[in-house]
Design a protein that fits this description.
Shape: elongated
Pfam family, one: AsmA
GO cellular component, one term: plasma membrane
Oligomer: single chain
Organism: Sulfurospirillum diekertiae
Strand content: over 45%
Radius of gyration: 32 Å
Protein name: AsmA domain-containing protein
Number of helices: 8
Structural class: alpha+beta
Length: about 475
């Protein structure tokens, strides 16, 4: 018989005085009977000190279940909270501030400020006691986005569902460290910019002393289901996430399409990774990323490039098999077209101090073995002493190539050996005399080993017809 909507203006004012935020209830406030409580719909939350015309949070409905025996004694004790359709937009604006931070109001009087602080303290204590009996909190159909005004990409968490149970709070501890609960969560998608989408994330975890631990983390990345565990540390100024997972049957076709936007690879890979990073903007993520990623696979197809054909153009010991047309067009056409079957592939990279170190990156085809080493600065996006080499049986470089610049626009740097090799090949087509070729230093017994990782040199099996006849 009570029209709760009559109390909207008083509620708006009370919330503004106690929290500083402007909360507007555009929907109805109604009484619910199962369970006994109150339901509020269509809510907006604004920061009056930063773009007050645009709410940073919207809520489809907010349901509060109350303890009936306590209510009969004129006491308010919340037993369950349900929030549906939360749309939370978090923005990092400047000076480390966020769009939900309340900026100081210069015209505010000191006496009024102290009064409000005292009122807020009393109300905070009463709010804590009112929610102490809450044993369940449900977030359903929620969307959370995070963006930095200085960055182009943003992170979006789509259709978040979170069930929090067995809640308790130790008032003697500071903030979140005194909160304990168990939870189950499911997120349809985590999207970063236009790429890097993680889908179908689900996990059960326990929050204790400000740290949430999950031993049953599941998600889909590059159309591949991955399982592992995670640790989420909320004790510091910025949350820290640690992930550890095994990777089985990673679909390389999906990986190449999402990372590079090209249909470049086909096949599967296995491996594992262990990563940790602080939550924040792109610079924070890149500069704090630490751990390793290891992937290996067999019989992988590389589309659009014939590795053995490229090796034939570059290898100085195979130049007699070249022709002038191949040489002239080699830098353009000979490196394109066709496919390669990678017999073995290994990628082991270590991350830390804003760098990705290429610890063991190599591949082998039926005829050749190629390795890459060096590092990439992921903050500045620069290549740091990156070298690729065509290897001999000892792991020494037959041909070595250096790269510099950024990984978006790398530049090739020819060394003296590469220039000499190209010169000898050109001379072999422009003179009738036979060129005496001196084998590079790398093929001596005392050569410097370029690569000694897990990928071995392919064993060449010559056909019977290639064996020269025995002379009389």
């Amino acid at each position: 018989m009570i029209d709760f909507n009559e109390y909207k203006p008083r509620l708006h004012k009370a919330i503004k005085e106690s929290t500083g935020y402007e909360v507007i209830i555009r929907g109805d406030i109604t009484l619910t009977l199962s369970p006994i409580g109150v339901s509020v719909s269509d809510i907006e939350v604004n920061n009056p000190t930063y773009h007050p015309e645009t709410p940073f949070a919207k809520l489809g409905s907010f349901d509060v279940a109350l303890d009936v025996p306590a209510l009969l004694k004129k006491e308010i004790k919340v037993t369950q909270l349900s929030l549906d359709g939360l749309a939370l937009n978090i923005e990092k604006i400047k000076d480390g501030k966020f769009n939900y931070d309340l900026l100081p109001v210069p015209t505010q009087k000191v006496a009024d400020k102290k009064t409000k602080e005292n009122n807020a303290t009393v109300e905070k204590e009463s709010d804590v006691s009112a929610f102490m009996n809450a044993k369940k909190i449900i977030f359903s159909n929620s969307t959370i986005s995070y963006a930095d005004v200085n960055a182009t990409n943003k992170i979006v968490f789509e259709h978040v569902h979170l069930d929090i149970n067995d809640i308790s709070y130790d008032v003697s501890k500071h903030s979140i460290q005194g909160l304990y609960f168990n939870a189950d969560t499911h997120i349809d998608k985590i999207q970063y910019g236009s790429a890097y989408a993680v889908q179908d994330i689900s996990m059960s975890f326990e929050l204790k002393n400000g740290i949430a631990v999950s031993n049953a983390l599941k998600y889909t990345l590059f159309d591949t289901q991955i399982q592992g565990n995670g640790k989420f540390d909320f004790c510091g100024k910025q949350p820290k996430i640690s992930l550890k997972s095994k990777i089985v049957g990673l679909k390389l076709a999906s990986l190449s399409k999402e990372l590079w936007g090209k249909d470049l690879l086909d096949g599967n890979a296995n491996g594992d990774f262990k990563l940790s990073f602080f939550v924040g903007d792109g610079i924070t993520f890149k500069s704090t990323l630490n751990g390793f990623v290891q992937l290996s696979g067999e019989e992988i197809t590389l589309k659009g490039y014939d590795i053995d054909k490229i090796a034939l153009v570059l290898d100085p010991f195979q130049k007699e098999k070249l022709n002038l047309n191949t040489l002239i067009s080699g830098t353009i056409e000979a490196f394109k077209g066709g496919n390669s079957v990678i017999k073995e592939l290994n990628t082991k990279v270590d991350l830390g101090y804003s760098e990705i170190k290429l610890s063991d990156v190599a591949l082998s085809t039926a005829s050749n073995r190629i390795a890459i080493k060096g590092a990439v600065n992921i903050v500045d996006e620069k290549l740091m002493d990156v070298k690729a080499a065509l290897l001999d049986t000892k792991g020494c470089a037959v041909v070595e190539q250096k790269f510099s610049g950024t990984y978006a626009k790398p530049s090739v740097k020819l060394d003296a050996t590469a220039v000499a090799t190209l010169k000898d090949v050109v001379l072999s087509f422009t003179t009738k005399s036979k060129i005496t070729h001196t084998q590079p230093k790398q093929n001596d017994e005392n050569c410097t080993v370029f690569y000694d990782g897990v990928i071995k040199q392919p064993e060449l099996v010559l056909p019977a017809t290639s064996v020269p006849p025995v002379s009389e």
